[in-house]
Amino acid sequence: MRTLPKWVNKIHEADKIEFSSVHTLCFSPDGSQLVVGAGEKVMVYDPRDGSLLQLLQAHKGAVHAVAYCGDGKKFASGSADRNVIIWTSKMEGILKYSHSEAIQCLAYNPVTFHLASCAISDFAFWSMDIKAVQKHKVSGRITSCAWSPNGQYLVIGLASGAVTFRDKVGNEIQRILREAAVWAVAFSKMTLLVTDWNETLSFYTIQGQQTLKERNIGMAAVSIMLLDSLILVGGVGGWAILTAEGVPIITTSQDWVWAIAPSPSFNNIAVACQDGTLWCYQVVFSTVHGLYRERYAYRENMTDVIIQHLTTGNKVRIKCHDRVQKIAIYKHRLAVQLPERVVVYEQGDVEGMLYRVREKLPQKSECSLLVATSDSLLLCQDTKLSMIGRQIPKSWSMPAPIRYVKVTSLRFEEVLLLGLMNGEIWQVEPNSGVSMMILQTPASVRCLDVSASRGCLSVVDEASTCRVYSLPSGELQYTEENVSSVSWNSWCDELLSLSGGGTLSIKAGHFTSATQPLIGSVVGFQGGRVFCLQANSMQTINVPLSHAVHQYIEHKLFNEAYAVACLGVTSSDWERLGVAALEEMSFEVARKAFQRSENITFLSLIDNLQERFDAGEKRDVIHGEILAYRGRYTDAARAFHSADRDDRALNLYVDLRMFNKAQEYVGEGDGLAALTRRRAEWARHVNEPRAAAEMYLAAGDVKRAAQLMAETGRRDMLIELARKLDKGSSESLRYVAEALEQAGELATSADVYQRLGDYTKVAQLAVAAGEWSRAFSLAREQSECKRDVYLPYAHKMAQENKFIEAQKAYHMAGETATAMRVFTILVGNAVTEERFSDAGYLHHLLASQFLDTASSLSGKERQKSLNQYEYNERHARIYHAYDSVHKCVHEPFSLSQPETLLNAARYILALLDGEAPPGVSMFCLYLCLAKQAKALSAHGLARQMLDKILGLQIPQKFQESVELLILKTRASSGSEARDDEVAPLCWRCRRHAPPLCAARCPHCHHSLVHSLATHEVLPLVQFKPAEGITHEEAFDLIERTPLPEVKDEQNTSDAEILRIDHEIDSNDPFLDKVEEEEDEGVVVCSRGNLMQLSPASVVIVKRNLFQPLYFRNMLPELPATACSNCQNLFYLEDYEIQLVVKGHCPFCRHPAEHLKNEDDDAEDSMLNDSTASTPGSPGDHHSWR
């Protein structure tokens, strides 16, 4: 570090003879103005050349202080005339205020920009918003003042040796006492610097505590300022630059320096002298540093050494507490030269940044270079090289001054390479002391470096020429011009970095250099980083090495290219290296390159090709694969052809959709068809479905053609194709049918399936289209279609909450378990909800299903099914009758007549066989019988039922009504009983049965026939044809016109005459006396008897799988009829009333309206002659489209 005078001015008074003493000066914040107080004048200079910008003459006394505001908008001047003037940056006075004494010093607050003005014994604060300036008294003469960096405290130095701390309102908060008068104070960060008349510099905290030790600076300083971390002092005897700890660096002698100030923007120092001289100095900072690989050591604050790791950026500071003159670093050693000694440090650990003092060597002599080796230190001065720190010192004298020293190793020996001013290169071995000249260059050596393998030496001379020599032969390899510094790459032997002329050049081997702009000099090159010294700082620059990699690739030097690429290149560079190596079949380098770029595709390709090549695959085939991957398809096809692998070339062109070229490698026949098929695939992918379909058809692939037509909606093409194909092409027709179905052409697809005879598929399509009528028709015509029709219909009905229809459909589909599960749930729900009529209807449906099932069975299975039919039919009749009984008991009003209710309850008791079905209450039956018998005056029957009720547990809510009924019944025991009136009449024997007898006459054993509307006994007598008469013959005989009756022509006037016609009476078996031993009570009719019967009085019940039952109505005026569906018997009048009121049969719920045509009924009915109704789903009106 040194100072150079930049300019100097001698300031005179107006008479040009007497000089004006310069007491104060300051710089503007931007460094563009230098304000000087000389005599009574305020002068503004341009600090660049010392020209006077403005002379301000407003004071009438000597100007003692000037200060510039931190905002750069104003400055202040204070004079012995006791006035303070505020000036703008344009040198215009805007305000003036006064003290009672001469102004001694001024200081602006760095935060609030308030001005502190100090007179001899008081001080004040001023700002733009203060109208009246308030003064604060001080006990002592004020000499100096300074604000703390945070603007909270004002420190005032007094001639009494005291330093007082004041807050922003002027109150004293701290005081420091010195032994001598305090002349200057300043802040370095939050440390207070104090100089006194004893030539000492002291350091204090804000709290008034002394921190560092006091320093004797050799002068009584009256001014103190900060230059970065350095301290500027001026006073009696001159001025000096000190370190942050007060160690002198530079001392300049002057008679008396009143003020010293640094420029904020330039390394300039302004010095104000008593003799009227104004000096401006240029401060030149010399760089003291050392570099070994990525560790850079440099001087900071003149007394500290910073070791920086250029790769990681980590730093460590070593405080030397003295001026650092030289630094040397090598491997684990660090040497620092101080004014009186050399301190050697060693690295604590290999990778760490901790350095410990190893030894201290006394050394006062100056040197131009300090050199450190692994175990010694050397000083270089002019032509002499000396080793210090050894027991036996060594020295070497060179023929010319030494310009550059490089520590390296040659042949496993640590050596020094010396570059001399006469152009010679010397080699010195410190351990052995041997020295010799190895090269002679044309000009003075500026710098040199040796390659990582020690095979090349580069030398830069004063002519800015770099020459590269081979070692140890010394042969010149090449020359580079306009070079100021050079460095070999420490990781790669082929890379050389050169700087000069504002550019950085990276040279690989003998190839052309790659350049980029660079300000500074290259001092190190490691991997992909260049260490560059720019001004006083070391910068790490990442340099691209792509050009070197590309140069090696162009010359097919893949190993060298890989070595350079490992230092750091982009992913695209790795890709280029990998591809180039792969094309030359350098698999190892290619694999490593693609691993770096993480290209899984090429890595898989390399593994595959390597395996095939090792297995004996021809080189041309492997090369062709590589060329194909690189897009050189023609060359790849030629390579395949040369290896007799035309199939590979064919696949290549087909994959590329280059079918015209592919035909060059294919023959006729199957190969051409395969090519056509692949071409069709391509047309399909490029959205040309029509062309693709035609190509598939041309290749004979009807399946793919049909699928493509369906996927793209080409219905017209599919329909046309279906018409062209004949029935013999069944497989092709099936493909077309499937495609038509996929395309939504269900009707056409069904026609094609029908041509193929696949009725199951036709039924499925009908179901899919919602054409249930056609589906049911197919199910009836083709038994194999039943499941495909009825099962979807069952699911549909279940989704629509039509569970009865769903149960029927499950049964028809053969899903017996599902049908039974649905039936069980429906019956259980109906019984739980007391819908006994529905429960009866459900049992009737199940009975009908068992009857239908029995028709297709035989043997035991058939009998089992018939037993189930009889069981469910009996339950259906019970629940049907119990519905009115339950309503009579539980509802307050009943629309049924007492006779009807009594008949229903009696009918249920007759049907019960053991335990009653779920939901049927014996209490309700007995209570209903008792109530209706009481109502009909059948007191005996009523008492009988009440006695049975008393044997049961009576529900609480019926307790009172039952007790009342018992009382009423007992009270009417004396009245006339009419039990005979409620007893059923047997029309076979014309006798009454007991009141509770409803099944069979106890006298003649004739089965009583009941109407399922009112449950009363019908006047029907069962008969059967005599043996030998078939049922068909019996039907014919009954349908014939009966023989005319013989009429008596005699006039009997009004007399009542009983005529017995023996021929007729004897032929009427219905009037014959009943024999007691008859078991069945069935009348047997001969042919003549059958012919005598009137068809209107005969009712025939026809049930599937059962023999017809013949009944004769003994009261023809009350005609009876049988339901056409369930074949149960009713009075015709009652049946017709039920049809009108309910619209269906009261038992089986068969609708009243029937289609005229039996075929039409069969077509519309899902179950075809079963008890199910025609399905009325919305799908009945769906079209095939």
UniProtKB/TrEMBL annotation:
Q: Which residues form the IFT122 first beta-propeller domain?
A: 15-181
Enumerate the WD repeat regions by residue range: 56-87
Q: Name one Pfam family in it.
A: Beta-prop_IFT122_2nd
Question: Could you state one GO cellular component term attached to this entry?
Answer: intraciliary transport particle A
| Lineage: superkingdom | Eukaryota
Which intervals of the chain are annotated as region Disordered?
1158-1185
Signal sequence region: none
Please provide the record's keywords in A-Z order: Cell projection, Cilium, Membrane, Repeat, Transmembrane, Transmembrane helix, WD repeat
What are the residue boundaries of the Intraflagellar transport protein 122 homolog TPR domain, all occurrences included?
A: 548-921
- The reply on keyword Transferase is no
Subcellular location(s): the record lists:
Cell projection, Cilium
State the protein's name: Intraflagellar transport protein 122 homolog
Q: What is the lineage of its organism?
A: Eukaryota, Metazoa, Ecdysozoa, Arthropoda, Hexapoda
- This chain is encoded by the gene named LOC114245282
